[in-house]
Specification:
231 residues; alpha/beta; 3-stranded antiparallel beta sheet; 3 helices
Length: 231
């Protein structure tokens, strides 16, 4: 256990990475650190100017609000609320987006993966596969806890993988939080950001790989600060 916390502390110091040039932003803001609801607004850059895209939508996120996650940002030295595994908080910060996903093919301009029941997102901190999505038929299973990427409910019918807690190719920081998505749901979550199916599909259809889309998430005050880091 001590090794987990030491590695977490080390990563929090080194977590900041170069922020890529982006032309698409998904901005999620909340009133405070403990609320489980907020607002999502999309932006795109045209002629060197940022313009809103679509209407702001009401979202739900972690049932216990927000905590600083590991992404492209640096975590303030005086940060008191830091995301950890199982804390019911969504990650605050700046994050790239990995692939979109769903239960069936969906023609879009963004990497999209069709998941099946045997695909798992590993949330067992003791696993070498922690915070990875794997095909359980193709790996040596060393985990006792996971999320099914396809199950009877429609929560993951459409979604996007948020690149939280992947600081390098070697994997995630143990205990810093795993399996963070944007997906479909009407109530607060264990750490994901959620909305209606139509809203989710619209966002996925809007994403463009060439635009290097980013997610910025935090309190209204934090979001203002993070936006200053964007070109």
């Amino acid at each position: 256990m001590k090794r987990i916390f030491l590695s977490l502390a080390f990563a929090l110091v080194l977590a900041q990475a170069q922020i890529p040039d982006t032309k698409q932003l998904i901005v999620v803001s909340t009133k405070n650190w403990s609320t489980s609801s907020g607002t999502l607004q999309r932006y795109e850059q045209k002629h060197s100017q940022w313009q809103t895209v679509g209407k702001a939508i009401a979202i739900k996120l972690g049932r216990n609000g927000l905590g600083w996650g590991i992404g492209l940002h640096s975590i303030p030295k005086n940060a008191k609320i830091i995301k950890k595994e199982g804390d019911g908080k969504a990650p605050a910060g700046i994050f790239t987006l990995k692939q979109a996903f769903g239960y069936a093919p969906f023609p879009v301009k963004y990497p999209y993966k069709v998941y099946k029941k045997t695909d798992h997102c590993v949330d067992d901190v003791h696993s070498k596969l922690y915070n990875k999505i794997v095909d359980s038929k193709k790996v040596r299973i060393d985990y006792k806890s996971k999320e099914y990427m396809k199950f009877p409910k429609d929560y993951y019918k459409y979604g996007i993988v948020v690149n939280h807690n992947h600081i390098d190719e070697q994997g995630a920081v143990k205990g810093a939080g795993s399996c963070i998505f944007i997906h479909i749901k009407k109530v607060p979550t264990a750490g994901c950001t959620v909305m209606t199916e139509d809203e989710m599909k619209e966002i996925i259809q809007w994403l463009d790989t060439k635009s290097n889309p980013l997610l910025i998430q935090g309190t209204q005050k934090v979001v203002k600060t993070l936006l200053k880091k964007i070109n």
